């Protein structure tokens, strides 16, 4: 029905690598796959093996669960989009008591869940991609703030910086990106 690939970490893996929970759900225990280093696995490619595997209107939804957290949706593949690479962005452990038990409850190990679901009920936005964009924006903003702080002074709880500081930062940012092709990629780690 489907296969997965962890870019730069695995060969294509078939459905038999997953434990089948029921007719429409599968789980991959990341402890079995990579041990406790699950958070080093940053993305995953999911692909349908042929166009006849899913009925019309159905999709394979991808979820991730870190130890002590709930499953979080990361995206889906379907007949119109038969493969996709999803940033996994492992969730943090929840604070407070864990009330759920059984499938979907917080687990002791990281897991990836794949489920056959109605395409119409899933968010149209790739949640993993949206979170990655938010993280990158936050890191770029931090970079700007640190740059401004190094040239500024504080006065009455406010940061006072030279008027051309944004231009200076942007030129330096562009220079680093041109000189080092990996510079922008480090914002995604």
From TrEMBL:
Residue stretches making up the Hikeshi-like N-terminal domain = 17-121
GO CC, one annotated term: nucleus
Q: Where are the transmembrane segments?
A: none
Q: Where's the Hikeshi-like C-terminal domain?
A: 133-186
The cross-references to InterPro entries, in alphabetical order and at most eight, read:
Hikeshi-like_C, Hikeshi-like_N, OPI10
Q: Which GO terms describe its molecular function?
A: nuclear import signal receptor activity
Gene Ontology biological process: protein import into nucleus
Q: Which Pfam families match?
A: Hikeshi-like_C (PF21057), Hikeshi-like_N (PF05603)
Task: Give the similarity note.
Answer: Belongs to the OPI10 family.
The name this protein carries in UniProt is Hikeshi-like domain-containing protein
Tell me what organism the protein belongs to. Physcomitrium patens
């Amino acid at each position: 029905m489907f296969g997965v690939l962890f870019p730069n970490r695995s060969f294509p893996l078939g459905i038999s690598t997953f434990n089948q929970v029921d007719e429409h759900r599968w789980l991959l225990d990341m402890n079995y796959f990579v041990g406790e280093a699950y958070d080093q696995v940053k993305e995953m490619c999911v692909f349908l093996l042929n166009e006849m595997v899913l009925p019309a209107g159905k999709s394979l939804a991808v979820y991730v669960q870190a130890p002590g957290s709930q499953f979080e949706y990361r995206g889906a593949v379907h007949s119109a989009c038969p493969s996709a690479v999803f940033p996994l962005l492992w969730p943090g452990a929840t604070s407070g008591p864990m009330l759920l038990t059984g499938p979907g409850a917080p687990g002791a190990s990281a897991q990836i869940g794949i489920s056959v679901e109605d395409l119409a009920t899933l968010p149209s936005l790739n949640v993993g991609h949206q979170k990655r964009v938010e993280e990158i924006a936050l890191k770029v903003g931090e970079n700007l703030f640190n740059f401004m702080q190094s040239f500024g002074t504080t006065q009455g709880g406010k940061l006072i910086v030279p008027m051309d500081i944004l231009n200076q930062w942007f030129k330096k940012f562009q220079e680093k990106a041109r000189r080092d092709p990996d510079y922008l990629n480090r914002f995604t780690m």
